[in-house]
UniProtKB/TrEMBL annotation:
Domain of life: Bacteria
Organism the protein comes from: Bradyrhizobium icense
Keyword Transcription regulation in record: no
Name of the molecule in the record: Oxidoreductase
Similarity field: Belongs to the oxygen-dependent FAD-linked oxidoreductase family.
Amino acid sequence: MQATATEAFIGSMRGPVIRRTDADYEAVRSLYNGMIDKSPEMIARCTDVADVVTAVEFATQNDLTVAIRGGGHNGPGLSSVDNGLMIDMSMMKGVRVNPTARTVRVGPGCTQGDVDHATHVYGLAVPAGIVSTTGIAGLTLGGGTGYLTRKHGLTIDNLLEADVVLADGRIVTANKSENADLYWGLRGGGGNFGIVTSFLFQAHPVNMVYAGPVFWDLKDARTVMQTYRDFLPGAPEELGAFVGLKTVPPVDPFPAEHQGKRACAIIACYNGATADGQAVMAKLLGALPAPLFNWMGEMPYPALQSMFDPFFPKGLQWYWRGDFVKELTDGAIDAHIAQAQKLPSALSLMHLYPIDGAVRRVGKSDTAWNTRDATWSMVIAGIDPNPQKAGEITRWTKGYWEAVHPYSADGCYVNFMMDDGDDNRLKATYGENYDRLVALKAKYDPKNFFHMNQNIRPLHS
């Protein structure tokens, strides 16, 4: 009977259903993070909302665990599942821009690059992350921080509406006036409440930007981080800039004499006139030692968004940890630098992304994303192409996190959680919003059908 049900399911799908015996199974099941290896029983490659509903109903009727894949960029590999059903929406990629209303309707399989490509021709952009291969669905549901955040808020602060397939197969719309409680929960609560099949975003004028990286030798990192810390709060919100500890990539076009050096970098984007951006950066750079190199210049916004893509192809080994940071003390800076001196690979890094400006103009209880009073969101990522280094980069990341965590706030941006997203960590992350999220989960997904995520369990589980 199960075989008959499976054949009926496959026949009712517009998109292909990939099984273990199919020639393309290995390629389709592969994940962005090469450290994660999962083997779903089937992969439903949805082409439309009807396919998503069909897949949900089949999984419910046959007691299958499901995982949801959008753009396929999830670090902990939560977009797949062993022996269950992957509902894969990566082919649902439509983007429709309304230039008059400055809104963008986005399919769940879109990457950030897909959205940037569609909006740039209109001189618009949706605030999102910093790597164009990032899936817009997972990024949004977790919060979404990037170069435009200080001026225009998190990605969820620009989410106007979402269409959602619930665990019982119903299709609902969530916005300020319709299913407003679900709309609240989707903005930071992850994939706990349903499968979003369409996002409607507010876009903002963005075209050419003054942007790029500036690198200093690690010996100057203390001065750079202190100066950045003190400068940014008073800088115009048009300037989005994060600071990182990393390695000068040992590849062209980076200067040969600096390749492989441990470094401190500021990667900045000024959304405005180039002359204004140069003037703002001159104030920052004037207080700092001479950098190894300064590659800031005028460029199209999508060029900035895709700048790091060549370094982070699919299939690398990743292990990351994060924290929210309210104050970057001198002691914290020293702890960071001590750990950066032990970088285990050329791609491993630490970034501090600013959480201020427009983010703080939204109330802590206005969305599920609670930490509006943070100053930075920190991520530490051990990254290497060699599977044999998986243990080393994991140990380094955990050790780094343990060294700097005493200087951090409680909780972490959920998109930077790996295997640390337990109840206590989520309670610390969502603060006073946590109980409301638990109640919302009980309303929309009482059986915890959607649990392959940073899981908020319903009241009775």
